[in-house]
Amino acid sequence: LEEYGRAALLQALPALFEEAGSRVHSRLAAIRALLVLRRMHARLPPWVLRRALADGHPAIRAAAALFDDTQDNIRRAELIRGALSDCVALAVLCRERLAHRDSGFADAAREALHRNAEPDIYGNLHPLPRDAIRWLTMAEVGAGSV
Question: What is the DSSP letter of 118?
């Protein structure tokens, strides 16, 4: 069933991406599909990864960044945004991925703290909750910055 499930999710993603900009349910479904594929240790086809990394919503970009092994500053910043997401499953996976921090992590954490707001799944901006600020501050210190 695993291979059939993977194929079904990959087949559904183009339509979900198409509607993600205007329909919240499609956006959430795209994020959940990417998270399920990640838990399945699936590899995304290059076009799916490119499309997801270019999406207009940071939660979709963060979910896609879970699949990208380059770990450049842009991907790191997307993972941090995912770690601050109101989508709990996305936040958990992004925080797990960011558990091994490098020198560029502190800069991205400071930027997120300075921004102090992230959009929810609907696109509405909200201030960072205390637990997110605490995680960023602890993560920044753990990355060697004070």
Answer: E
